[in-house]
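Q: Given only this backbone (290 positions), what sequence would you predict?
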C-alpha cells in the first residue's frame, strides 16, 4: 500500500533528478549515477581482542576443573566488510568532477556457528559470541580524471564526511543436543563519527551511456561515543576496559554499556569504546550517464 508520505518521497526524488538533469543541460554539466560494490579489509583490534579474551576466560576456567574438557573450534575475527555505495557525480569539465555519495558497510561474525565447546561431566555445551557492525556514510568527494585514450580514464578521488554506525554483540550458550542458544547478554548501540576517503580507479567508457570501473580505495574512520541499551534494559555509554577476575587471576578486555565510567582497582585502560572501520577496499561498478 502506497502511503501519502511515501508518495511525497517518490515525487521529491523524481523532481530532484529532473532538476539536476535540467541544470546539467542548461549549464553544460554532465550528471551521472555511480554504483559500486566490493570487499574491504579491516582490523577492529578492540573487538577482536575482546573475543580472544572471552575465549581465554573459558579456557582458564576449564583448566581449573579436572572433569571438564575444552574443545577448540573456530573463534574467528572481524577482518572483512562488504561495502556498497552510490554517488551522484557532477562533471564540471572533462577532468574535474564533484560528487555526493552514501552507502552501506557491513561486517558480521557467524551468528549460528559455535566458537567452541566445553564438555562438563555428563553434558557438552556450545558457546557463541556473535558480533555485528554496520555503517552508513555520507561523503562529499572531488575527482580528477586522466584520459588515457578515447575510452579509458584513470581517476583519483578524495572525500570527507560523516558516518553513522551500529554495533551489536550477544553472548550465548546451549547444550549440544539443543537447537537454540540462550543469550545471557545482548548489547545494541549506535554512534556517529567522521570519515576520510581516497581512491584510485580505472574507468572504461562505452557508447551506450553505461560505463564500467574498478577502484581501489582507503577509508579512515574510528568511531566512538556509542550509546545504547542492553538486554536487561539498562541504557548508557559503551565503554572499553580491562576487568580483573581475582578467581582466575586474569585481566579480561570487555565492551559494556554503563551509565558511568567504571573505576576502582579492578579496572584499567578505561575509555569510551571505539570501532575502527578503517581499511583498504576493492570495488567494481557501473556509471550511468544522464
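A: Predicted residues:
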Amino acid at each position: 500500500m502506497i502511503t501519502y508520505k511515501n508518495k511525497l518521497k517518490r515525487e521529491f526524488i523524481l523532481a530532484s533528478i529532473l532538476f539536476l538533469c535540467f541544470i546539467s543541460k542548461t549549464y553544460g554539466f554532465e550528471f551521472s549515477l555511480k554504483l559500486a560494490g566490493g570487499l574491504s579489509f579491516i582490523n577492529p583490534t578492540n573487538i577482536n581482542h575482546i573475543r580472544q579474551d572471552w575465549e581465554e576466560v573459558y579456557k582458564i576456567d576449564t583448566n581449573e576443573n579436572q572433569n571438564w574438557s575444552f574443545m577448540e573450534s573456530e573463534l574467528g575475527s572481524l577482518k572483512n566488510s562488504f561495502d556498497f555505495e552510490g554517488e551522484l557525480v557532477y562533471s564540471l569539465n572533462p577532468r574535474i568532477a564533484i560528487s555526493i555519495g552514501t552507502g552501506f558497510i557491513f561486517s558480521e561474525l557467524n551468528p549460528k556457528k559455535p566458537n567452541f565447546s566445553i564438555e562438563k561431566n555428563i553434558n557438552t555445551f556450545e558457546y557463541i559470541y556473535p558480533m555485528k557492525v554496520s555503517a552508513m556514510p555520507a561523503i562529499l568527494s572531488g575527482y580528477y580524471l586522466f584520459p588515457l585514450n578515447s575510452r579509458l580514464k584513470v581517476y583519483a578521488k578524495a572525500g570527507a564526511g560523516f558516518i553513522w554506525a551500529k554495533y551489536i554483540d550477544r553472548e550465548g550458550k546451549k547444550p549440544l543436543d539443543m537447537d537454540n542458544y540462550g543469550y545471557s547478554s545482548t548489547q545494541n548501540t549506535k554512534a556517529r563519527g567522521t570519515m576520510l576517503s581516497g581512491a584510485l580507479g580505472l574507468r572504461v567508457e562505452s557508447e551506450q551511456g553505461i560505463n564500467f570501473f574498478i577502484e581501489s580505495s582507503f577509508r579512515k574512520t574510528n568511531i566512538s561515543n556509542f550509546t545504547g541499551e542492553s538486554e536487561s534494559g539498562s541504557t548508557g555509554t559503551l565503554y572499553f576496559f580491562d576487568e580483573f577476575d581475582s578467581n582466575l587471576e586474569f585481566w579480561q578486555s570487555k565492551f559494556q554499556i554503563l551509565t558511568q565510567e567504571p573505576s576502582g582497582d579492578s579496572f584499567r585502560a578505561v575509555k569510551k569504546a571505539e570501532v575502527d572501520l578503517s581499511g583498504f577496499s576493492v570495488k567494481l561498478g557501473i556509471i550511468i550517464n544522464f
